[in-house]
Amino acid sequence: MNRSANRAVIRLRRWIAAALAMSLLLSACSKGGSGKESAGEPATIKVLYWSDQSFQMEYGMLFYATHPDIEIQVVNTNAIQSGEGDYNEKLDELIRKEKPDILLLSQDQYEKYAADGRLVSLESYITRDKFDLEGFVPGMVELLREKGGGELYGLAPRFYSQAVYYNKDLFDRFGIEYPTDRMSWEELLNLAARFPTDGEGEDRVFGLYMMYAPSGVQPLAQQIGLTHGLRVLNPADKRVSLDTDSWARVYETAVKAVRSGALYKEDPASFTGEIVYQDYLLRDPFIGGKAAMAIGPMYLLIQIREASGMLPDKAVNNWDLVTVPVDPANPDYSPDMNFYDVFAINAESTNPDAAWKFIRYVHSDEFARVVSKSFMGQFPTRTKYIQDEEGRNLAAFYALKPSGANLYEGADDLPGDFYMQFDFIGNEEMQAVLNDEKTVREALASMQTRLQAVIDGAAENPASGPNAFEFPGSGEVSEGSGSASGSAASVPEDAEPVPADAESVPDRADAGAAGEGSAE
Question: What's the Cα-to-Cα distance from 222 to each of 238, 248, 249, 426, 427, rounded to whole Å?
């Protein structure tokens, strides 16, 4: 999309966001005052948040409408996001200096602050007010209690997730059964491979489009491995653990999928020239009807809605949703279910009761009812009002519990470019596999050796800095190496489909042995 079109879209969305915030405020006030608490002692509280404007639009105006006696001041974290120095250290300093009553924390920060005694337990407030903990997305309360050492210190008002979108018309045209909830990666990839791969141009149909992971082996293998709870490192000794049976089966599955031709591969030539926003929307292969399935975030709902309004004859309209693929050994969990923002009360708060009123409101049934009237890419964690007018399966976004899986567990103190090197080396080695120059196991052995050298080299020469990155090896990967770029894999003319009896990807039990990249 050209710059002028992009700026126009940004301005339009900002205007829409402001208009929606106002409409939500009016909605909150339109219940005859039934949602407004009786005025109490005037109070002022501080909340830690990344943007004053965003806080007011997302929470502040609605809270003021029902709690006029409480004023909120925002302690903006935007200033510490950039620049030199460790972010967490700068955050600690900001909290000590400003003493906000309410903290907005990541899950990791929440866990650490709870362990350090820096948060107020919410248990007594919940019991006193008979606050309803039912109706939240599955697993949220349990996860936050677990991270709090058995106590609940915070709640998350919104969640982020992905789902499998599927085009019913394409499935019907080729006589293929629809996907279902809780499929394994093998089942999903085999289903995608049943679509023909012989079309050209506008007639070409792809079985699967992964919005945030291009068609290369490396990004797909990372996603499959994450689903199965595998890890790149042994956290205890910082040894790379990739040359294992578990990872070999993951990468073999990904190689077969890429060779099948089922995965959508972006054409760089399509990004030349200037286009209008409608063309930008149709460029998405699922919206444009070229992909039978897409693994995408909740935000894709907005883009489909926009495209349907602007281009009703061209955009996909007969579609539905199922959950993302799961580990068959743990079919109720997914790494794609996340709660990025957790509100908690600072143990040094001078007004914890007023802080609790805010947390209680933004996690209330009333707040969920009001914000459900508009959708800007995230749903409230209370699911009662998450509904689709046409009966689509929006529960696919919250049916699975958060697994908490982390490919890079134990990598916090590694050089900052380790992740980039993992992507680059993985792309390079898997390209050799696709070129029939190496077996998967040979490529994994090379990846393990090369990545361990990255870690050992950084330990021996810390003065080189965390961002001193030189691309190792002489191989050329034309599509880049970051997590947003796929490998340079080309689909051979004699591409084979993913066989229906493909060797199963390991479950967590198989990955449990030491040195197997286990999540255990």
Answer: 19, 12, 12, 10, 11
Nearest to 315 by CA among 296, 324, 302, 327: 302
- Residue 131 burial (CB count, 10 A): 15
User: Dihedrals φ, ψ of 18, to 5°?
Assistant: -65, -45
Say how far apart CA 351 and CA 517 lie, in whole Å: 46
One fold for 13-155+340-380 and 162-225+246-334: yes
Distance between CA 355 and CA 359 in Å, rounded?
Answer: 6
Q: In the block, which residue shows the tokens 């080695």?
A: 429
Under 8 Å between Cβ of 44 and 357: no
Give the Cβ contact number of residue 444 at 10 Å.
23
Place of tokens 């050992």: 456
What is the number of helices (H) and of strands (E) in the chain?
A: 17, 15
Distance of alpha carbon 386 from alpha carbon 120, whole angstroms: 30
The hierarchical CATH code for the domain 162-225+246-334 is 3.40.190.10
- Work out the percent of the chain whose per-residue pLDDT is above 70: 79
Q: DSSP per residue over 446-476, as a string?
A: HHHHHHHHHHHHHHH-GGG-TT-----SS--
Weakest mean pLDDT among 16-25, 195-204, 298-307, 315-324:
16-25
Residue 482 has pLDDT above 70, yes or no: no
* Helix, strand, coil tally for the chain in percent (to 5): 40, 10, 45
Note whether 376 and 370 are within 8 A (CB): no
- Give the H/E segment covering residue 104: strand 102-105
For residue 253, give the nearest of 206, 209, 329, 192 by alpha carbon: 192
Region 101-110: what's the mean pLDDT?
96
Task: Please state whether beta strands 43-49 and 293-297 pair in parallel, antiparallel, or not at all (unpaired).
Answer: unpaired
Between the alpha carbon of residue 45 and those of residues 102, 330, 359, 417, 460, the distances in Å are 8, 42, 12, 39, 48
Closest alpha carbon to 225 in 255, 257, 192, 248 = 248
d(CA 459, CA 385): 51
Tokens standing for residue 513? 């042995």
- Quick check: 204 pLDDT over 80? yes
Structure tokens at 374: 């508009």
What confidence tier does 86 reach under pLDDT thresholds 50, 70, 90? confident
What span, in angstroms and rounded, lies between the C-alpha atoms of 144 and 343? 11
Q: Would you list the domain boundaries of the chain?
A: 13-155+340-380, 162-225+246-334, 418-512
The CATH architecture assigned to 13-155+340-380 reads 3-Layer(aba) Sandwich (3.40)
Query: What is the Cα 480 distance to its own chain's centre?
Result: 21
Three-state SS at 59:
helix
The conformational region for residue 310 under phi > 0 = left, psi -120 to 50 = alpha, else beta, is alpha
Is residue 46 helix, strand or coil? strand
Spatial CA neighbour of 157 closest among 344, 9, 291: 344
* d(C-alpha 250, C-alpha 504), whole Å: 9
pTM: 0.82
